């Protein structure tokens, strides 16, 4: 048994190491399963993982819902100093970038009994990076420039089935997100599968969320992925399951 555990641990470390050696571009949003069971069910949340996320979902009918997420990443500063043979700085390049990921989806849900639900959402997301670039030539100011803009990182199409239950004090769910990611850098497409286990704990309309998940992907891809991820947040919920539940 010990030998098997060591073997699996070594395999896992190898996967993480290989992923770290590749270009890491994909930054996933948290996976949102609603647990809706009736028309006018609604939720709003602020989540944190790779992004600070604003999310909202609404049940338009007894079986159809819409969901949207805005993700805002932290600012990254990259400064490059080029020096001459004597060690003096001849030019400086400062690049600031801030990623974003916007997501929208349409879903079907049905009451599975005992305030439980089954749902399946399909949607798309677009990841971009807003940047500013400042170059300073300390020997010839005519070469100085400032530039800003937005570069697209990737597009993703996904389908997300989930099963869960919302209650007065606790919500639980399991959801899988199957995603095709197309990178704008080289038009390369990867397929990945992410499965998340989510718990929300609180009282009635306000709950704190915790999420952990695993990711399956092609280890031979030119891009790197991490096998595990996590997120947390706070939810404001108004739905029938919470009103009817006794626990």
Q: Which helices and strands appear, and what pairs or packs with what?
A:
Elements: H1 2-20, E1 42-48, E2 52-59, E3 64-72, E4 76-83, E5 89-113, E6 116-137, E7 145-165, E8 170-183, E9 188-203, E10 206-216, E11 228-238, H2 240-244
Antiparallel strand pairs: 1-2, 1-11, 2-3, 3-5, 4-5, 5-6, 6-7, 7-8, 8-9, 9-10, 10-11
Question: What would your notes on this structure say?
Answer:
This protein has 247 residues and is mostly beta strands. Helices cover 10% and strands 62% of the residues. The chain has two helices and eleven strands, in the order H-E-E-E-E-E-E-E-E-E-E-E-H. The chain has helices spanning 2-20, 240-244, and strands at residues 42-48, 52-59, 64-72, 76-83, 89-113, 116-137, 145-165, 170-183, 188-203, 206-216, 228-238. The chain has a ten-stranded antiparallel beta barrel with strand order 1-2-3-5-6-7-8-9-10-11. Strand 2 (52-59) and strand 3 form a beta hairpin. The longest helix is centred in the N-terminal third of the chain and has 19 residues, at 2-20. The protein is elongated, with a radius of gyration of 22 Å. The model has no long low-confidence stretch (mean pLDDT 91).
């Amino acid at each position: 048994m010990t030998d098997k555990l060591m073997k699996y641990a070594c395999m896992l470390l190898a996967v993480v190491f290989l992923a770290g050696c590749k270009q890491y571009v994909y930054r996933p949003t948290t996976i949102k399963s609603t647990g809706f069971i009736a028309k006018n069910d609604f939720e709003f949340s602020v989540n944190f993982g790779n992004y600070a996320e604003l999310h909202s979902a609404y049940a338009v009918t007894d079986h159809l819902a819409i969901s949207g997420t805005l993700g805002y990443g932290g600012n990254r500063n990259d400064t490059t100093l080029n020096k001459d043979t004597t060690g003096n700085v001849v030019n400086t390049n400062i690049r600031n970038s801030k990623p974003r990921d916007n997501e929208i989806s349409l879903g079907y849900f049905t009451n599975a009994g005992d305030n439980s639900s089954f749902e399946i959402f399909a949607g798309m997301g677009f990841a971009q990076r807003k940047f500013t670039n400042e170059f300073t030539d300390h020997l010839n100011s005519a070469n100085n420039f400032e530039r800003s803009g937005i570069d697209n990182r990737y597009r993703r199409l996904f389908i997300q089935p989930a099963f869960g239950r919302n209650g007065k004090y606790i919500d639980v769910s399991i959801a899988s997100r199957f995603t095709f990611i197309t990178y704008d850098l080289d038009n390369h497409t990867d397929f990945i599968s992410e499965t998340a286990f989510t718990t929300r704990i609180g009282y009635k309309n306000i709950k704190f969320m915790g999420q952990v998940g695993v990711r399956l992907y092609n280890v031979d891809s030119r891009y790197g992925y991490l096998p595990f991820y996590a997120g947390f947040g706070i939810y404001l919920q108004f739905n029938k399951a919470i009103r009817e539940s006794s626990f």
